[in-house]
Amino acid sequence: MLNLPRLPRSIATVCLSGHLLDKLEAAAAAGFDGVEIFENDLLTYEGSPAEIRRLAEDLGLAITIFQPFRDFEAMPEPQRARNMDRAERKFDVMQALGTDLVLVCSNTQEVAIDDDARAAADLAEMAERAAKRGLRVGYEALAWGRNVSRWKHAWKIVQMAGHDSLGLIVDSFHTLSLGDEHAGIAELPGEKIFFVQLADAPRLSMDVLSWSRHFRNYPGQGDLDVGGFLGSVMKSGYRGPISLEVFNDDFREAPARLNARDALRSLILAESQAGVAELPALAKCEGVAFLEFAVDVAARTRLGGFLETLGFRLCGRHRSKDVLLYRQGGINLVLNAEQDSAAAEHFQLHGPSVCAMALKVDDAARALARARALQCSEWQEHRGVDEKALPGIRATDGTLILLIGPDGDGDSSLSWQNDFHMLEDAPEGPLAQIDHVAQALPTGSMDSFVLFWRAVFGLEPQQAFEIADPQGLIRSRAMISPDGALRLPLNISESRKTSTGRFVTAFAGAGVHHVAFDTQDIFAAVQDFRAKGLRTLQIPPNYYDDLGARWGLEDDMLARLREHDVLYDRDAGGELFQFYSHAFDSRFFFEVIERRGAQGFGAANASVRMAAQARG
Ligand SMILES: O=C(O)c1ccc(O)c(O)c1
Ligand SMILES: [Mg+2]
What we know:
Catalyzes the conversion of 3-dehydroshikimate to protocatechuate (3,4-dihydroxybenzoate), a common intermediate of quinate and shikimate degradation pathways. With about 625 residues, the chain is of the alpha/beta class. About 35% of the residues lie in helices and about 25% in strands. Bound molecules: 3,4-dihydroxybenzoic acid and magnesium ion.
């Protein structure tokens, strides 16, 4: 851990949606110290640069840099002379904006001359002109630059130019997208690095320009080692602003304030990974302590009956609230119909739905401190005298996440006896634990969820895959804790007509769309639940014919699967069996899963399940 004063946190206006004023307000509201003014945001703004300067000042934002200046160095005449004039005009703008630094990105023009000495001479002349006005020039290698695409090459040119007012700008995306090394940045003199930009990105195979312009995301949302990159930068002695610069199609339409909050969360995470700032360490996630459903009295009766067909029993009534506890094995489901509560608010907006997820953690206070440090909002439910306070935070979509840790005496801080009249012990049925909780996300919000679960709870994003719903594609990505105790598949769809799309549009936002319970004997579970009145989701015979061909299963096994509507898959050298309930009120549904060594979620079966659900 480096012992440093906090470095200024900056964000490029190009990251955020809206007009320039919206962007500035969002950056300030999130808590950034400064902004990079992207030239297009200035050109399309009706006020003068001096007014922009005042606006930023009023919001407490520094203008950290003006960018970009393109296609400057190593041009043939007459463009070369014209570029010098153009630079003077931009210096006028910078002075009106009140920023002293301009970003020059490496030339992308075909006519640019491949001659480092020419490039260095041009940049030196620009720096000399800038210096006369007390301004500085930073040179950044674009990964798709015509002749200069790597930081080492840009650094060589900066050194050749040898001007105090010319320095290097490094950007994690350009370095990491090319697979270039960043450790060498630590060896540079820190004062010659004039500015640092950070962006992450998912690993994609496409040309680097399109990748950069459409798919960058914030540190912690993608697959690049941005924390390591920042660590190298800090070792150089650089002590200027750390700035986020993300070009992303989804972010351009996301609400600017939510997006800016994610941006700050990502920057805080990257700082902690680089040892620049300290975050309370991750708490260990030990699974789901309980799920809470928002219901009214009628929905509660129906949901309680539905749960009984899955082997759950009513085990407790809250002492002071209109809340019931259903249990089986180690699974706790809370049905909340209390009028003046977060659940009631959730019910008003979404109807019967999961309104809170309580996570078991090894240290609830530390988990809460980390969430706070990562800008999560807190929630505290009303409670009666002597009732336990459960610390809660809001996930990125507002879902309530409660934190349940062991108390000082080693027991869980969740003591049902304390708050509930217990009617009976949890029955030992076929279901033992919650295996996973799957959520449907609103379009464009996958990165936000990935960042939340990764930064706050240390869950790791798994490979994303696509599932064909009869009405369009669904993209699915699971977030899993390091030891697998908490598994949260996240589903998202561009189409409003897929099961995910309908869920999000019909029920006003993101939410849990299925809960999977694990069992030791899937066939016994089907028989037991059918006897209790459960209708399993019917799977067409073609599925089983294909299954036989694919895995060479014995006929009697195939017949058994078919008779029980059980789906089958293999991964990680193990087997997986699963069946589904029909949806409750056409909303969420339940899955029962038996894992014999398999780690996945039966991806190959998802489209069969969705088609069966679409048939109703
Ligand atoms: O895509 C671009 O043009 C562009 C401009 C400026 C930057 O700092 C950058 O990283 C990319
Ligand atoms: Mg950049």
